Amino acid sequence: MRFVIVTGMSGAGKRTVMKILEDYGYFCVDNLPVQMVRKFYELMIKSEEDIENVALGIDIRSGEALEEMEGILSYFNASKCDVEILYMDASDDVLIKRFKETRRLHPLFLEGRVEEGLKEERRRLKFLKSKANYIIETDNLLVRDLHAEIEKIFVENKEYSNLYVNVVSFGFKHGIPVDSDLVFDVRFMPNPYYEEDLRPKTGNDYEVQEYVMASAASTEFVEKLTSMVKFLIPNYIAEGKNQLVISIGCTGGHHRSVTVANKLYEALKEVENIGVKICHRDIKR
């Protein structure tokens, strides 16, 4: 039996994950009292219904009893029980935005500021995150991307490295993406904007890509950038980094940055055990 505890920050996507797992045949129970977790596990193991996969939602709604999970997890570990922990996370800025959009109140601060609730929630959940087998950060994940990650881990049983790489193209005149980890300026490359037939096109078009990459400097830059990022990835994983945002900028975010972002994205898709996504932030501006 595969027994998965789904936990993490409020608003990070736990309910969505539970629905996805349920669609894949997992027996799902959300917000079970912590005091019943051990008994629930034993019942599932002894069940005569041949339940193969179980997902249990545990989070801050458990209140003060949540602290008891640390002892329960120690018991599972000592007993060599096959229990996995999936921790859902997102940055405070993204979570606050989601709370405002849905007009939900934070479960810890029903009459206070969401920011204070998130701070306290992170403190209480810290021990669970430290024990997690999988950490998924949903800042830049669409539901379909999350669905693909859950399928990869819990259905296809593929190895998961806890690192999701986001390649973002942007225009400097619109500002640098605030969540960038690495920023690269490609304004030194040939600019298709000054070619009338290429100006209305973007870096998604072959003609623009050919124009940008015709320069020896462009080709060398992309090769060295790809090599460096591939070198960094296993080192970031070793340090426990969960999400890497690589931002590539040109003047307007239509031609050069899109071209290079596409080249890097295609190269990173060949790297095993990471998730990779591309976003052309300013391509329609």
Structural account:
Helix content is 40%, strand content 19%. With 285 residues, the protein is α/β, with parallel strands linked by helices. The protein has 2 domains: 153 residues, Rossmann fold, CATH 3.40.50; 117 residues, no CATH class. Helix 1 crosses helix 6 and helix 8 packs across helix 9.
* H and E order: EHEHEHEHHEHEEHHEHE
Number of strands: 9
Tell me what the CATH architecture of the largest domain is: 3-Layer(aba) Sandwich
Spatial separation of the terminal alpha carbons: 50 Å
Give the CATH H-level superfamily of the largest domain.
P-loop containing nucleotide triphosphate hydrolases
Instruction: Give the number of helices.
Output: 9
Helix content: 40-55%
Could you please say which CATH topology of the largest domain applies here? Rossmann fold
Radius of gyration: 22 Å
Average pLDDT confidence is 91
The largest sheet, given as strand count, sense and whether it forms a barrel, is: 5 strands, parallel
Low-confidence stretches: none
Note the beta-strand portion: 15-25%
Could you say which structural class the secondary elements and strand pairing correspond to? Answer: alpha/beta
Q: Short description, anyone?
A:
It contains 9 helices and 9 strands. It is α/β, with parallel strands linked by helices and 285 residues long. The chain has 2 domains: 2-154, Rossmann fold (3-Layer(aba) Sandwich), CATH 3.40.50.300; 164-280, no CATH class.
